[in-house]
Amino acid sequence: MKNIKNIISFIIMSIVLVSCEDKGLENADWLKEPNFANPMTLSLSVNEVVLVKENEGQNAITFTWTKGNDRGAGTNLTYFLRMDIEGKNFGEGMDKDNDNYTTITEELPQGVFTKTYTVKQLNDLLLKNFKRPGGVVTNLQLQIIARVDNSKQFQLPEVSTSTFSATSYSPGPLPLFMVGDAISGNWDYSTGKSLPEITERTIYNYIGNFSVGSFKVIEKPGNELPSYDPAAGNTLVYNETEPRTADNVFKVAESGRHSLYMDIDQKTYVFGYVPYENIYMVGNAITGIGWDIGKAKQMTWDPKNPEVFSYKGQFDAGEFKLYTQQGNWGGRALMPAINLTKLVPDAAPTPMSLMPNANPDNKWLIEATGNYELIVNPAKMTIALKKL
Fold first, then answer.
1. How many Å apart are CA 305 and CA 99, to the nearest integer?
2. Considering the entire predicted model, what is its pTM?
3. How confident is the model at residue 181 (pLDDT cuts 50, 70, 90)?
4. Are 65 and 160 in contact (CB under 8 A)?
5. Which long-range contacts (CB under 8 A, 24 or more apart) does 92-98 make?
6. Which of 197, 179, 196 is nearest to 188 (CA)?
7. Is the peptide bond before 226 cis (omega within 30 degrees of 0)?
8. Which domain holds residue 248?
9. Burial class (CB in 10 A: 0-12, 13-18, 19+), 360
10. Domain check: are 66 and 23 in the same one?
11. Do 9 and 96 share a domain, yes or no?
12. Of 302, 318, 320, 300, nearest to 310 (Cα)?
């Protein structure tokens, strides 16, 4: 059986109420799954495909489906293709901004009942969208959905589902390097620092010390070009012709520990000041932790939002402290100026200070037990509490 809730969540934004009059339901079975004598059927050219780099231009797999069943006078069908890793249930209940959300959805042209992926197209999906490394087998689930449009009352779509497996290949790494007075000490293009590759030929992330100055990201040691240059709106430009100027370099205004995150496939970057590697919470306000410094709970850090550490979950009414390391009461702590400073949910961020020896022993206060998001910004030295 198909997952009704999953299908409804997919199409709920497209429901159109044709009549504003309250005439009641014309059909008591309107939320039952379609049951036709000849249901729409999805066929695959192969059930297992092994992708090979030398065959990038060849077709890897073709999906073919029959026409959906007629739904009454005036109606028409719009077809969608969905694909995801088998078992992920097409991201049901997951925020699309979540890094673990991998479902792809494509509206298909009218009158088209087939879809083909080349070897390169399918391999790129596996590596970049599904975050699967080369050389592994991935089980994928596929759906064709026939949405009913222009119906007098809402009708569930007709859905056909199938699965197949694909073995990806690695296209090989693409080394990138950082050069400049802010990172390597000078503009000698043969002495750059390596920019770690997180996802092959796609995502890069470096965390380390920078000096005040500027730097570029280049492909080949010893050559200024090609380079990946910063542009407006945290976008990247692939530059093969323009020499270095004051406008096409990354600028560092404050020396210290920074993070550079680049997605060269999406042509975006994030560069931010990250003075501490981790931040930990301890106290009777931290559910399940209490005042055990050895069990202090680590906050979450995201390279796409590098200035911020956050934690979502239940907090108890009580007090807590923030440390930049675990297991040391006398270590560096991020504290309020006044002991038992109350964090008011959804209020403006509160200033905090670094106490190198956690002295004086000032603590933060949460007045009511509840589900919150705690947001700590050590770059701006602020803390905030949001109610979930």
1. 13
2. 0.70
3. very high
4. yes
5. 92/3, 92/5, 92/6, 92/9, 93/9
6. 179
7. yes
8. 176-273
9. exposed
10. yes
11. yes
12. 300
